[in-house]
Task: structure prediction
Amino acid sequence: MTELIRNPRVMKKAQESIRTTLGLKKERITEEDLGKVEYLNHILKETFRLHPALPFVVPRETMSHIKIQGYDIPPKTQIQLNVWTIGRDPKRWNDPEEFNPERFANSSVDFRGQHFDLLPFGSGRRICPGMPMAIASVELALMNLLYYFDWSMPDGTKGEDIDMEEAGNISIVKKIPLQLVPVQRY
Amino acid sequence: MTILLCFFLVSLLTIVSSIFLKQNKTSKFNLPPSPSSLPIIGNLHHLAGLPHRCFHKLSIKYGPLVFLRLGSVPVVVISSSEAAEAVLKTNDLECCSRPKTVGSGKLSYGFKDITFAPYGEYWREVRKLAVIELFSSKKVQSFRYIREEEVDFVVKKVSESALKQSPVDLSKTFFSLTASIICRVALGQNFNESGFVIDQDRIEELVTESAEALGTFTFSDFFPGGLGRFVDWLFQRHKKINKVFKELDAFYQHVIDDHLKPEGRKNQDIVTLILDMIDKQEDSDSFKLNMDNLKAIVMVNSQILVFFISYVNLY
Result:
């Protein structure tokens, strides 16, 4: 939601896509409707890329001596994967600092652990088992809030003024709560 | 007195670590590049600020693999997708354990959960349980009505704000939405109903405090053994963790007690599911769950889900 209010173009496109796909004056949005709006899926991926909830996933530990790219890593070494940095790697992403969901339009990159550019849930044997539960909840909530309401900043403030400061340690949160004014559409 | 003690400690550590560092220089290993380190603390001084930002800066200077020594713990920071693939795919099994920290050990009842359990027979069994029973697509589907009802509730609340044209605190909204969903799915309890054991604000505080306990390092994490424990004792680091743990434990015990009452298991929530499994266990089974496993699994995993879902929605 924060990135959407900061990027009115994306917000508008998201709402139009959802409203056109679902039709006007829908009584209730259910999980039947999930997956219907492709653009919403791109927004989720773009959010995972720029704002992974666990910026360096849960660390692993080596059990034996391994070699990675020619370097030795001894047993009992902590492995910290900085997915925050990987999501902003200029070698892999064009304009990495920009919130641009369209970058996923003609791309097969997904967040389920098969693409190592986007790893919000980790990958391999230790991949987060709660992923399906998390995705369903996130998509349903966003779809509802974007379909039924238009959103604006409280009096006089602008989207680009939002303080993006992060707080926390292994997990990060937005330091200042996000306050927005809703206008009912349907 | 405290200052004197610290001084003594530092000198002792310097001697110990200088012996240790000398050994390191003769190492025949080709370790990844590493910034200069200090006696005792190693590279801990490079971690002032948000850790991912610090790691980010180090990767720009030293490349996609950086070797650090945090106290006496060796750490490799991976910052490119190629190196990530080499770890998570090519060497998945060799890198499949978890480092132990004081906070994660306490909140997982001694690593009896899924997330923090070290690699081994126990972890393989609970992992199977999680994938097949707790988070299978059939199970996730069976909780669909809960997600839908809770989201409807949010839409109703936001409509009320829209009528009054008053702002909505979305940080709070997403948190309570997620917490309600997870509470009903995992514990079968609805905290919007009156009579719920703790109020919503306290839950929010507890989630924050336990995230802190899981994420904040103690001295013992970097200096295992008596020394780390001593410094932690000096600074009372364990007190906070123990306090959160006690409150959470009492809360989960209350939930389990409710489930053990007659008629207590009419909801097919995660606690019911695991209690039913415990009932069906036979003496001869090699893999057995007990109440600590139940609490650890529910506590750690609901924590992570609550945190994750509210976070993604907000951004």
